[in-house]
Amino acid sequence: MILFSNISFQHKIFIRVDGVNFSKKVEELKLKKPYDERLINALIEASLYVFKYFNPRLAFIFSDEINFLFLPPLPFKGRLEKLNSIIPSIVSSKVSLIFKKELPFDSKIICVNDDEIYSYLIERQNEAWRNHINSYAFYKLLEEGYSRKEAANILKGKKYKDLHEMLFQKGINLAKTPAWQRRGVLIYKKKEEYEKKLNGKIIKYFRNRVIIDRNPPLFSSNNGVKFLREIISS
Ligand SMILES: [Mg+2]
Q1: Are 42 and 59 in contact (CB under 8 A)?
Q2: What residue ranges define each of the domains in the chain, with the CATH number in brackets?
């Protein structure tokens, strides 16, 4: 019997960890809508916990999902059943402890080649952006007394421009919301140079520092690609 096929530990993969039934959980936790800093902070904490035990190259977080990029050699020699259970269970246990409530997370593994690393991240950031517009619009309509179904119907098929305008009329400027809501949060390691004195001589050494970037560039821009390339190839 084959449960999972293993991939070579030479592969590059994203592990996408995602909250199960999260819109319902948001209600139960009484989180602020459309965004609550406690949730993004909990997901950042959980990601840092993964960074503590494993060596992902980066983590990209938005909404209720975390995307970890792992480059070869993969942990557990690339055994999918291990990676696909341990990583979400670390995230789930951390986030559950923070909120003192059972919060399951599932995960899936996406194998990528060099180019797809970038297109994947661009696609997830686009999703963060769409999510941002839709959430603001949806919860604004609920606030005004529409039911969830009515709100969903009103938003169906509406263009971004229309939603932007609709929200602007209602006093929300989508260009002025916090950057992490629009572009997500990126966590990565950065090699930093340090100096210390040893026997009267100054010696330089490097140490990896984990950076939490709540204002990452637009990945699809020239700057964004350059920024990602530096992280991925370092
Ligand atoms: Mg979800």
Answers
A1: no
A2: 12-113 (3.30.70.3000)
